Amino acid sequence: MKSQWEEKWLEDIEFLRENLIEKHKNLFFNISKEEFDSRIDKLKSMIGDLDYEEMKVEISRVVASIGDAHTSVAFPANKYLPIKFYWFEDGIYIIRTSEAYKNLLFKKVIAIEDVSMDKILHELSEIISFENEYFFKAQSMKYMQVAEVLYGLLISDSMDNIKITTEHNTVKVKTVNIKELKYSDSELPLYARRPNENLWYEYLEDKEELYIKYNYCREEGNIKISTKIVEIIDFIEKNSTYKITIDLRNNLGGDSKLLEPLLCYIKNNPRINNKENLKVIIGRETFSSGLLNAYEFKFETNCVIWGEPSGGKPNCYGEILRFVLPNSKFSVSYSTRYYKLIDDDSTMSLYPDKTVYEKNDRSHSHTRDFSCELE
C-alpha cells in the first residue's frame, strides 16, 4: 500500500504529464511521446526510493529531456553556497564570495565533495533545460550554487556544509539562505554593478560614450522602462552624445516590445546608427526576449555586435505560461509559441560580429570589462 506521501507525488507527476501534453505548443518536437511516457513511468516507479530533494532533481530531469530551454521547473531553493562561479575558457573559477570565504576568490574549482567538475557538469546537463552550450554554461553555474541541487544529485550528503576543492586549497563552505546571501564589496566590472536595475545608463567620459545596460525586458516596480528611455534620449540630445553601447549580455527576457522606443530613436538617428558609433553586446545569458531585441538591432540598425554567442537559440519555442503542481507547488513553465527569426533552423545562437570572451585576468581581480575596451 502506498503512503500518502507517495500518492501525492504520483498525483503531481501525472498532473505534470497531462498538462505538458495538453498545454505545450509542440511537446514532442525533440523527444517522442513513447520516450516521454517512459521517463514519466520510470519516475513513478522511483518514488519510494527518493527523498524530497531527489524528487526535485528527478522531475527536472524529465522536463529537461524535452529539449526546450523555455520549458523548465522552478522549485523552491533554501540553501545556497555564498559563492559565485563563472565558466571561463580554461575552467570554472570563483568570482565572488562572502567575506568569510575570500580565500577562495579567483581560484579555479577542481571538485565539489571530491566529485570532479566534469562529472558535476555532466549531471547538471541532465536536469537543466537548454538548447545550446552557451546557455548551459550560464545556467549550470547558478544550479551549482544551490545546495539542494548538489544534494539531490548525490554529489553532497549535506545541505549545510559543502567541501570545495580549488587548485590551491580545500574549504568546507557553510550554506546560507537567500536573505543571508551577501557578497564582499570587491570591485566589480561595469556591467555587473547594478544587477537589480532593469535598465540603467552611465556616461563614460574617457570614451565620450553612453553605456546602456538592459538587464531585464520588464518594468521595474513603479519606474517604467519607457520613462527611462525618455531620460536616455534626453541625455543624448542635451549632450550631443552619438557613441552608444547597448549591453544585452545578461538579459534573460520578458517583453521585447519595451525597448521599441529606444530602437526606433536609434535607427532613425544617422549620427548614432552606423558601425563606428553603435555597438551591441550579447552573451551566454542573452535569451528569449533579450535575444529578440538583439536580433532587432542586427536586422534594423547598422550596429556591430560584440561578445559571446547568445544563450538563446534564434528559432525556438517560447512565450511561456506556467502551471503549478498541486501538492509540491513546483512551478512549471511551458512554451506556447514557436519563434522563427532566421531561415536556418540548425543555427544554435546569434553569433557576434566580433567575438570577445569574458577575461579571466586575476591580476585585475576580475574587474576588467571588455565593454570598456571596445574599439
TrEMBL record:
Highest taxon, organism lineage: Bacteria
The protein's name in its UniProt record: Peptidase S41
Organism the protein comes from: Clostridium sulfidigenes
